[in-house]
Amino acid sequence: MLNTIFTIFDTNKDHVIDKEEFRFCWQKWIKQVVRPVTALLVVDVQNDFISGSLAISNCPAGHHGEEVIPPIIHLLEDNRFDMVVYSLDWHPEDHVSFIDNVRDRPLHETCKITCDEAQVYDTVIFDSVNDCKPTEQKLWPRHCVQNTWGAELHQDLKIAEDAVLVYKGTDPDTDSYSAFWDNNKKSHTSLNEELQKRNITDLFICGIAYDVCVAATAKHAIEIGYRTMIVDDACRGVSEKDIEATKDHTIANNGLVIHSSQVKSLASGRDRPPVLAYKLALELSKKLKKK
Ligand code: VGL
Ligand code: ZN
Asked: Which residues have a Cβ under 8 Å from the Cβ of 192 and sit 6 or more positions away?
């Protein structure tokens, strides 16, 4: 890791970091590592996932969604994030992910089940719409319908001042687990733009469901280039196996899975894990190569 980092900043590859190289290193790497600009991203802490139609307590892991609320409140009270974002799953009535809408769109010929056989939590394949490839779609109970109680953020959740709300899954034909892009990567929300506006470097991600929308959001955050941390004890999910896969993917891609008690020293730049410095160096290297 150290050698890779050295080589990235030794731009002329003469095995010496000269003054110009050090200037770049200082401006673009050391500064950010020592003083990260942070955002807390609270994913889908909405009634339907906690006690409504898609309560995750009915899912295989048997988790209780409301348990994310105390650690999230504590995070908000104990830290000064440069930005706090709440994402909301925000579907129209005719959304493609609802089991009771399965008859509204033609299934693709490669789909192994018919619409009469399809049950909740099954995955089907719909014909292409809006010139996307035929897409796999997991069928969920009707949930988070726009402007209904089920789509509201839980009443015990603290809403930070100047918080940014991000709505996703608003296109009837496309599901969107990530708070950045929809599942076909055809359209994006305002999230990345809002983060860039504030020069955010580090994302702390928490919420529901760990292995669905938290997982997809963390994956895209890492792809875009953010130093990404999942706050493990402030997430609850659907399936233990998929939660493990989410953690593995994050760690394998130079992100971190942390406990909420670690956030304070990380967000203030007192704790500086090498892997996050490494992640930023890799992103800078990509930008240098593009020039
Ligand atoms: C979610 C299933 C369907 C989530 C959203 O927020 O994790 N899960 N839509
Ligand atoms: Zn949804």
From this structure: 180, 224
